[in-house]
Amino acid sequence: MGHVIGKDVYRKLGKKIDNLTVRAPWNETFHAILKELYSTEEADVVVKMPYGLSNFDRIEKITKYERPKLQKILESLCAKGLVMDLWIFDEYQYMLSPLVIGIFEFTMMRTGKDLNTKEWAKLFHNYLESDGTFYRANFKHNEKISPLRTLPHEDAIETSEHVEVLDYEKATAIIEGAKKFSIGLCSCRHEKLHVGEKKCDVPLETCSTFDSAADYMIRHNFAKEVSKTEMLENLARSKEMGLVFCADNAKKDITFICHCCKCCCNVLLGISKFGYPNVVVTSSFIATSDEKKCAECGTCAEACPIDAIKMLPEGNPKIDTSICMGCGVCALKCETGALKLVKRKQRVVHPETVFERVILQCLERGTLQNQMFSNPQSITHTFMRGFLGAFLKLPPVKKALMSDTLRSSFLGIMKKGA
């Protein structure tokens, strides 16, 4: 059947993306990004698609696009990283890419001929870094759930006392537990390279993905398949260069590890430049300094990727514990061993699975109702989204569901419903 696409399709598309797992506030730069990346037909399909995971038959039924045409449009969207196709329940399930982690990363990881990469980099740079609007939209209310968490460098952890480091906290253990591996371009460094702000000598190809994510990345040429040995070598090189490891904010089935540098990483800049410490969830560790061992050289302050360490007039380092991520980069560079990572006094709670993280992330950002009533073409679903959304936005309700008391019960109910 034919489809009449209105002039405001990109405004509708922007609203749809803003209502996924990460907020994407509207402005003219965001409008320009959408027009650059999506054809009008692709935009129309995304606007009409369900919010959550759906198979092809459901998408066909909801969008009312003819099967051959819809197949072609979805293939194009997946090839550009604007929609993800994941092999689940013995068939491909399609999911809309949020702005982060999704549209930005996959766009800047694309390789090949005739790509408008320089223009994409400029647009994303202006959108993400012009005035901090994106970070405010997602973290101004002290939101705790981020897509990423910090992994501590294992060699930086204090070993004089018995300290248990769990497997999900170890980059090496995550790699050892995976079966498929891929490495692609770091989207942040690629973006900074094209806008003239890459100040480091860190290679572009560092972004690591595993298993189902690696499968998706390899199929769509966002990354190349590598062996476990090559992945471990990539990890060792990044450790030597003093990069921060940020992983999927979940304990199980971890799909990626980012290798982040101080000058390029948009996540780290969210902390150091815009002042939102929860842009990345801390590790269970925090840096501490032994004044007796300290040589007062300032290497740790220089190495800290978010400027959380300042040298006092008397020469000792002062660690800003309110923003320290517990990455351990400072400790790796400390030649006297004065700086180490120790266990935080306050427990850091990470979601068990990506499913739990998405639920909690959406609850914090006021978009959970879209995941629960996902059909944008249904009058009933539209009513329920509005009704439930208003209820979940009530501060006492949100606070209760995110509390330690009700959180596990709430997630259990959501799992059962899913």
Topology summary:
Elements: H1 9-18, H2 28-37, H3 40-48, E1 54-55, H4 56-63, H5 67-79, E2 83-88, E3 91-96, H6 99-109, H7 117-129, H8 133-139, E4 148-151, H9 171-176, E5 181-185, H10 187-194, E6 205-210, H11 211-219, E7 223-226, H12 228-240, E8 244-248, E9 256-260, H13 266-272, E10 285-289, H14 299-303, E11 309-311, E12 317-319, H15 329-333, E13 339-343, H16 354-365, H17 368-372, H18 379-392, H19 395-402, H20 407-417
Antiparallel strand pairs: 1-3, 2-3, 4-8, 5-6, 5-7, 6-9, 8-9, 10-13, 11-12
The spatial strand order of the largest sheet comes to 4-8-9-6-5-7
- Average pLDDT score: 93
What is the CATH class designation of the largest domain? Alpha Beta
Instruction: Summarize the amount of helix as a percent range.
Output: 40-55%
Shape: globular
Note the total helix count.
20
Question: β content, as a range?
Answer: 5-15%
Gap between N and C termini, in Å?
Answer: 32 Å
Q: Could you describe the 3D structure shown?
A:
The radius of gyration is 22 Å and the shape is globular. The strands form four sheets. The protein has a six-stranded antiparallel β-sheet with strand order 4-8-9-6-5-7. The longest helix is centred in the C-terminal third of the chain and has 14 residues, at 379-392. It has three domains: 9-139, Arc Repressor Mutant, subunit A (Orthogonal Bundle); 148-283 and 285-343, Alpha-Beta Plaits; 359-417, no CATH class. By secondary structure, the protein is an alpha+beta fold. Helix content is 44%, strand content 14%. The protein has helices at residues 9-18, 28-37, 40-48, 56-63, 67-79, 99-109, 117-129, 133-139, 171-176, 187-194, 211-219, 228-240, 266-272, 299-303, 329-333, 354-365, 368-372, 379-392, 395-402, 407-417, and strands at residues 54-55, 83-88, 91-96, 148-151, 181-185, 205-210, 223-226, 244-248, 256-260, 285-289, 309-311, 317-319, 339-343. A hairpin with a 7-residue loop joins strand 8 (244-248) and strand 9 (256-260).
